[in-house]
Amino acid sequence: MSVAVVAAMGIGAGTSYANSAPPQGDATVGYQTSVQPGGRSVATVLDSGAFKLASGGTAVDVVDNAGAQLDRIPLAYGIDGALVPISAAIGGDGRSLTLTPQAPDPAVLGVHPVYSQTAYQNMVTQIEWGWLHGGQVNANIGAGIGAVVGCVLFLFVGCIPGAAIGATIGAVTGVVNANPAAQPAVFDFLRTLP
């Protein structure tokens, strides 16, 4: 999750020119950002201005030395429609900020098992039923048509590749036509793969 935090927050090191309105003077705030040991937190130190917790505690404001807001950092981000909270620790001088994402409840994120033996078995059963009730015949027809087309178009060099391509197309078409439940079963299984 630490990589997601870094990517989601666009963290880098350099000089920020954050201004939500035309600057009334110099609104430049330099900063340094680093990932903390362990990779669970990101720390940022400003060379001027300060971090201030926004009212309501849902964001951290970056303000210049005069107290004008330059930018706002939200303290939650969305993953699959669920908000994941981020804890913020502002240093005593207000110039340092450490952000740490909190582990969300797996039920909130809709985490599911990676591999399902049941989905695999259902896929195999549906494909087998389709093969026995029309897939095999269509594969043979497709192989014959593919061989003829391959031989005619590519003068005997394409006979075997044409037959293989035709057989594959025929088998898939035959299985799906004979058993419409085969295609959804394949997609259900593929959704369980990592």
Report on the structure:
It comes from Rhodococcus spelaei. The protein is an alpha+beta fold. The chain has 2 domains: 105 residues, no CATH class; 74 residues, no CATH class. The chain has 5 helices and 9 strands. The strands form 2 sheets. Strands 1-2-3-9-8-7 form a 6-stranded antiparallel beta sheet, covered by helices on one side. Strands 4-5-6 form a 3-stranded antiparallel beta sheet, with no helix packed on it. α3 packs across α4 and α3 crosses α5. The radius of gyration is 30 Å and the shape is elongated.
Nutshell version of this structure?
The chain has 194 residues and is an alpha+beta fold. It has helices at 2-9, 106-109, 117-154, 159-178, 182-190; strands spanning 14-16, 29-35, 42-46, 50-53, 59-63, 69-74, 76-79, 82-90, 96-101. The two termini are 16 Å apart.
Keywords, please?
194 residues; alpha+beta; 6-stranded antiparallel beta sheet; disordered N terminus; DUF8020; DUF8020 domain-containing protein
